[in-house]
Amino acid sequence: MWNPDVYLAFADHRGRPFFDLTARIDAKQPRRVVDLGCGPGNLTATLAQRWPQARIEALDSSPEMVAAARERGIDAAVGSATEWAPAADTDVVISNAVLHWIPDHAELVVRWARELAPGAWLAFQVPGNFEAPSHRALQEVARRDTFAEALRDIPFQDKVTQAPEVYAGLLTDTGCAVDAWETTYVHELTGQTPVLDWITGSALTAVKSRLSEEAWQQYRAELAPLLVQAYPARPDGRTFYPFRRIFVVARKA
């Protein structure tokens, strides 16, 4: 279960990649703009501000996130990105930090590109940090005897997303002009367990949903020192958390 409040605790940090992504979309007067994986809607709202004449279509698989988006006035709906198909008037499709949750998502974006009309834009961003110390640590704890049975169905893997050039090649083959790149953000965090707090709102959602409250607290207690060791706080109390992200912006020819 996704918790909008926990996710939004790092709204500024999580929002920056969205703006870096959408800044490369040069659509002038789009008719329909789609946000696949709209989350709590705080970023979707900026699309309506940028393109006030467009119809904004927002979709998320989490009822909690959709409810939060609707509270912001977003016409959001519960739905699956894997089942979504573009309407004929779709001129911009955006998916920010969503596709890594979908197995074989590369095939999905290829399908979207083929279904979009000429001139339409497809932009997505995915994390590229699945080999980071934070993710290795959460998997290490998950495999311990205390938690292994409850978490056995989580498909932990290091190779979740592709390199930018792989996405670029796939979308170029569909007839798109592609701009693909990667950026490593160094997030400056504060608090006693800043990296743990960060991943609790994202990477650990599947873990938390499978554990009792008691087991979840024990899991956190065992994970916390590993994260502190991997990302030690500076003497001034700040912790730097590097986070690699992959960006793709494609325009259908």
Topology record:
Layout: H1 4-7, H2 11-22, E1 32-36, H3 44-50, E2 55-60, H4 63-71, E3 76-78, E4 90-96, H5 105-115, E5 121-127, H6 133-142, H7 145-148, H8 164-172, E6 176-189, H9 194-200, H10 205-210, H11 213-230, E7 239-252
Parallel strand pairs: 1-2, 1-4, 2-3, 4-5
Antiparallel strand pairs: 5-7, 6-7
Helix pairs in contact: 6-11
Describe the structure.
By secondary structure, this protein is α/β, with parallel strands linked by helices. It has a single domain, classed as 3-Layer(aba) Sandwich (Rossmann fold). It has helices at residues 4-7, 11-22, 44-50, 63-71, 105-115, 133-142, 145-148, 164-172, 194-200, 205-210, 213-230, and strands at residues 32-36, 55-60, 76-78, 90-96, 121-127, 176-189, 239-252. Strands 3-2-1-4-5-7-6 form a 7-stranded mixed sheet, with helices on both faces. Helix 5 (105-115) links the parallel strand 4 and strand 5. The radius of gyration is 19 Å and the shape is globular. Pfam families: Methyltransf_23. Keywords: Cytoplasm, Methyltransferase, S-adenosyl-L-methionine, Transferase. This is Trans-aconitate 2-methyltransferase. Catalyzes the S-adenosylmethionine monomethyl esterification of trans-aconitate. One of its GO terms (biological process) is methylation.
